Amino acid sequence: MQVFGYPRVSTDEQADKGNSLNEQMERMTAYCKAMGWDDPIFFIEDGFSAKNLNRPEMTKMLERIKNDPYGGIVLTTKLDRLSRKLFDILSLNVFFNKHGFNYVSATEGFDTSTPAGRLVLQMLGMVAEFERERISERVRDNMTSIARNTTKVISRPCFGYDIVDGEMVINIDESIEIIKAANELLDGKAARSIIKRWNLIDKIKTKEGNEWHEKTFRELLQRETLIGDFVYNKTYKNGTKIITRPENEWIYVENHHPAIIDKETFEKLQNLFKGRKSVGRHFSDDRYLLSGLVVCGHCKNKMNGKIYKSFSKKMNKENIRYKYLCDGYLKKANCFFHNIDRDLLEKTIQDRIIEISQSAPGSMHLLFSKPKTDSIDKAGVKAKLAKLDKRMQKQIDAYNDDLITAHDLKLASEKVEKERAELRKLLDDSSKAHRDNSVAKLVDRAKSSVDVILSGDRIKIKQIIHEIVDKIEVINGEELSIVWRAD
């Protein structure tokens, strides 16, 4: 009988529990002799966790099973050597059976060629998965406690820092490159040219020893670590996707370690990245400053740049006019023909930014985009308001059924109305505070943008506009509604 043995250890298990590879291999070899099977062919997995199936020797063994015409046995010393996730265990078992293999655990006394073995497999798989989740929960709670109550570093250092005796310290050589890159970006240099210099000329590597690409470069310069703050529990992994948690779940420690760049520079970098992201690959094209921002107020489609050319016999030259034309009319035929002059619209927006920079915050009536994050849980507050309505309806029903008196109904109504008023005030105060904050930020951004607006550098002007404008609605080619960025 052909046997594929799969011994596996992670580094911690080998050190702490004595689950050495040699011990597992000896046990599997002895088991095969006792059963009268062939000596096992080993696929030795050294230093890989069982949290998923992305393991090199596991991959080799599965490929071998898939292409093997004879079938046989897959053998481990314990079920958790194979996997600690029930779904993975059951999926592997289906795969093994499909290709003529059965799974056997040498110390837990079952094999999947029998109904009893399959039942035990599922039961033990559930226990193994439960234990792993409990361990993960304890580790997470411990790490959270360390992050909240100490300055000890519990994550790998990012580029620019090293960890010495559990503390984050600045790596001088790397920090110099970060400061230089930040200044170059704010001076208008493209990120691509900086990355090219790091990779090809200066031979600067990431902390993992890899070459830089745009995603890793951008992520580095967006990390709060660079301003001396420490953020834990910001993201989690769901399969292969990295998902950002709500901001109120983050553990944010200010002034946790020495900063490489100051907060003002960091904020300018974030605005720069936001602007470039919204413009995308058209950022280097300065023909239309408002690409992607102009929206038709009738059909809500984008209004894109369009060139109109005509020849003047009188002037003996070609006339070129630049317009923003409704995409709903041009490509979808669900709107009517209307456009707006490029130069007029762009000058209006630039003049408006200058006007904001010179105005008192309380004197302006401005529209803002919906914030990405709320200072309170608005959905939760609205859910509580809905519950109050249901509670009040129950009181009314009880009164109609003569279960409570009119006096009881009045008291209940007053109590509910008081709670309603408190929740509505919470919503109103939150909205007002957020608007005041958005106005103050917009005024600051406008003031810092005036020099660029007056410089005539269309690339930089385009960048600034995309940092502070969310969209521009145009109605009938004349009326404008400017929506400013809230964050």
From TrEMBL:
Residue ranges of coiled coil: 406-433
InterPro entries recorded: DNA_bind_recomb_sf (IPR038109), DNA_bind_recombinase_dom (IPR011109), Resolv_N (IPR006119), Resolvase-like_N_sf (IPR036162), SSR_resolvase (IPR050639), Zn_ribbon_recom_dom (IPR025827)
Residue span, Recombinase domain: 158-279
UniProt keyword annotation of DNA-binding present: yes
Key words, A-Z: Coiled coil, DNA recombination, DNA-binding
Pfam families: Recombinase, Resolvase, Zn_ribbon_recom
Domain Resolvase/invertase-type recombinase catalytic intervals: 2-150
Name this polypeptide is given: Recombinase family protein
Organism annotation: Paenibacillus puldeungensis
